[in-house]
Amino acid sequence: MDEVFGLFPTPVLRAGGAVPPALVAELAAHFDAAPAQANAASDQLVHTRLLRPEDSPLLPQLVALLTPKIEDMGALMFGQRLGWAIKEMWVNRMGQGGHQAMHHHANSFVSGVLYLTEVDAAAQTVFSKPVGGTEFVFRHQHAQVASTPFNADRWVCPATAPGDLLLFPSYLLHAVPPNPGGRRITLSFNAIPGGLDAWGYAIRFGA
Ligand SMILES: [Fe+2]
């Protein structure tokens, strides 16, 4: 029997219905009206400033729901349930035609997206392998080439519903393709563990 091993996989955790509909609706309504700044690359995308828990009574409830999921994700990444803290969170509002350029999140270990509205199938979050480098690149890509887990250089998140949560390692490149659908509202955040310990070589993190 042949066996194929996918070596060193990367965890991306999707938690369906992580936040109940009533809280999702309140968050969407509250932050749909919050002041926001334009995205540098898309005039149909705005971001609120970084939010503090005291900005809305909805946020402590939300943090209490998100934190156990972040701990689950952290256990996959580091092999132990560590104490985790959400370091910053913000809301993204995207209109029709908006997009989010490829990026990753610095100074963070687990990043997340909570979907507050429906998302058009063409505007799901997309993850990419690292791009660039300083060596020549060889590829085999044309219409007859099948996509496999080993040759694909991007992964599109399966359909999401309001209240679904997506968690991923903060170093992963991600983007939102041009949105042909309606208003797309998400809440993003970054989280850090209290510390890491490599056989006594320990480091602590604080916001
Ligand atoms: Fe992001």
Concise overview:
The protein has 207 residues and is an alpha+beta fold.
Can you offer a commentary on this structure?
- This is 2OG-Fe(II) oxygenase family protein.
- InterPro entries: CHP02466.
- Pfam families: 2OG-FeII_Oxy_5 (PF13759).
- The protein is of the alpha+beta class.
- It has one domain (13-195): Jelly Rolls, CATH 2.60.120.
- It has helices at residues 21-32, 58-78; strands at 13-15, 37-38, 45-47, 84-94, 100-103, 110-115, 126-128, 154-156, 165-169, 173-176, 184-193, 195-198, 201-204.
- Strands 1-9-6-11-4-3-2 form a seven-stranded antiparallel sheet. A four-stranded antiparallel sheet has the order 5-10-7-8, with no helix packed on it. It has a two-stranded antiparallel ribbon with strand order 12-13.
- Strand 12 and strand 13 (201-204) form a beta hairpin.
- The mean pLDDT is 96.
- The structure holds fe (ii) ion.
Proportion of residues in β-strands: 25-35%
Catalogue the unreliable spans. Answer: none
Structural class: alpha+beta
- Count every helix, treating DSSP H or I runs of 4 or more residues as helices: 2
Helix content: 10-25%
The molecules bound to the chains, other than polymers, are: fe (ii) ion
Given this structure, which CATH class is correct?
A: Mainly Beta
H/E element order: EHEEHEEEEEEEEEE
The overall strand count is 13
The largest sheet is: 7 strands, antiparallel
Strand order of the largest sheet: 1-9-6-11-4-3-2
What is the third-level CATH name, the topology?
A: Jelly Rolls
First-to-last CA distance = 50 Å
> How many domains in all?
1
Radius of gyration: 18 Å
CATH superfamily: q2cbj1_9rhob like domain
**Average residue pLDDT:** 96
Query: Which CATH-level-2 architecture?
Result: Sandwich
Shape: globular
Pfam family, one: 2OG-FeII_Oxy_5
Protein name: 2OG-Fe(II) oxygenase family protein
InterPro entries: CHP02466
